[in-house]
Each structure stands twice: as C-alpha cells, then as structure tokens.
Amino acid sequence: MLQQTQVATVIPYYDRFLKRFPTVHTLANAPQEDVLRLWSGLGYYARGRNLHRAARLIAKRGFPRTAEAIAELPGVGRSTAAAIAVFAYGERAAILDGNAKRVLSRSFALSDEDQLWRVAERLLPKRDIETYTQALMDLGATICTRAKPRCGDCPVKGDCVAHEQGSTARFPAPRAKRALPMRKVTWWVLLKEGRVLLEKRPSAGLWGGLLTFPEIAHASWRVRSRRTLPIVEHGFTHFRLRATPILCAVGAARPAKNQRWIALSQAARAAVPTPVKKLLIGL
Q: What is the rounded average pLDDT of the residues 128-152?
C-alpha cells in the first residue's frame, strides 16, 4: 500500500497519463513507446505494459464479465478479478487482498494462502455479495489493521481465534526478509553534437521496452574523452542495481538496430526509467 507521501508524489503522473489516455480505446491505439513514456515516474513498468496489452484486448473483444475471464487479462490477479466481478456484475467470487487476508488470517489463525482461499470461498454469502465484500475490505482497512488493530471495536472479535489467543501480531505471518543481491552494470553515456545514444531494451525483463544507456561498449565508437560519473543505485523488488555511468564524448558511434541518437534536450522526456531520467537531466 502506498504511503501518503508516495501518493502525493505519483498523483501528477497518473493525472498526466489519464489526460493523454482518457478511454480504453485511446490507450489501445497508442504506440507502446508513448504509453511507457507517460508511465515513466510511476515505477513497475511491467504494469504499464500489461495495462496497454489489456486495453488492446478489451478494445477488440469487450470487457469480460466473469472473474475467471477477467483474471486472464494481462496483469490482473485472482483477487482483483474477483473484486471487479463482484462490484460490476454481482458474481459470488472470493477476494483475498491484503485487508481481507488479514481479517481471515486472524479470525481463523491461518497463514497458509491456499487454506485462506478455501476459507474465503466457504464464507461467501448467497446474497448481498457486494455489501459483504466491501465490509470485509473496510474491516481490514479500519479495524483489523496491520499494526495496533482495534480489537475492542471489532464486530467479529468473539469469533476471532487470534484475538482469543492474544496472537494477532502473528497473523498473517510476515514474509521472511532476505538480503537483496546486487547487480552491477556499466552505463555508457555517449554524447555527440548535443545528442545522446539510447538503447531500447527487450520487451521482456527489466525495464522492458524502455530506453536506457548501452551497457556494452563497441569497438566502432570513436571516444574522444571520457570520465566516470557518480554511481547510480536503484532498488527493485528482488535486487538492487548499481550502475557506473561513463560519460563519453564521441566523434562517431554507429547505432545498433535497437539504438538511436536523441537530442539531449528531449531525452529526459522519452520513455526512460526514472534513474536514467535523473541522470539525463543532470547532464
């Protein structure tokens, strides 16, 4: 869940994105590079790619009407699909977002996700599914909070196993923290006549489809001068990236198929990830 300061930071980016793509069809018809350029600053670029792919599917086939079909859209998980189906179509479908998981985990003293899904499905009411689902999410968001749950105000405290055992802090079980590996790369920042050389990354993987600096030097580059810039570090979910930028003035550098020269004054507004954008702005 985003903290309040994080929300304030990303709202301008969302506003800009929605103004450019106000409908599913405008998003579906846009080139991927335009989508990723406006997504820059929001992070998790796979979400931007998935959103674009989902928009194209919806524009072509219409919006799916069941939780199972909605979950087949790129980037839509089981719980999100169920929530959409519940509130849009009244389908009896179980959710297990963070709030619902916390309520059910404590109520039944369970941490295993498969068991929690079975409980969530078993508890589904036969009617008023929308009210039940909203109440479950609201209970987790306002009463059964992660820290300092207000058990005295909880309407289901009498049936809550964790409350009875005094073990609410144990549920759901926290994920084991592990040290993140460090991935080290070199960024070749090539400048020529007011232009910078950028490289489009493969569509799958880290920063897929975005423009970054080349990481492999080529013998064809005629480097006139070079100097090492301050190291750039950036955190991801599963690792940390440490990039060493080497600023080079070149007389010639033939771009590869996935590379192109972009005016330095325009480069920071291209489809580049945030660390690359910050470096470009500082050049």
A: 96
- How far are the Cα atoms of 124, 222, 258 from residue 21, in angstroms, in the given order? 36, 42, 27
197/238: higher pLDDT: 197
Listed in order, the ranges of the chain carrying CATH 3.90.79.10 are 182-282
CA 213/CA 186 separation, integer angstroms: 9
**3-state SS string for the chain:** CCCHHHHHHHHHHHHHHHHHCCCHHHHHCCCHHHHHHHHCCCCCHHHHHHHHHHHHHHHHHCCCCCHHHHCCCCCCCHHHHHHHHHHHHCCCCCCCCHHHHHHHHHHHCCCCHHHHHHHHHHCCCCCCHHHHHHHHHHHHHHCCCCCCCCHHHCCCHHHCHHHHHCCHHHCCCCCCCCCCCEEEEEEEEEEECCEEEEEECCCCCCCCCCEECCCCCCCCCEEEEEEECCCEEEECCCCEEEEEEEEEEEEECCCCCCEEEEEHHHHCCCCCCHHHHHHHHHC
Cα(192)–Cα(251) distance, rounded to whole angstroms? 7
pLDDT of 252? 84
Q: What is the pLDDT of residues 26-60, one digit of tens each?
A: 999 999 989 988 887 777 888 999 999 999 999 99
Torsion of the alpha carbons at 262, 265, 270 and 273, rounded to the nearest 10: 110
| Sequence-separated (6 or more) residues with CB below 8 Å from residue 220 | 252, 253, 254
Return the CATH class of domain 97-177: mainly alpha
Q: Could you tell me the pTM of the whole model?
A: 0.79
Domain with CATH 1.10.1670.10 in the chain: 97-177
**Domain covering 182-282 assigned CATH 3.90.79.10 in the classification:** yes
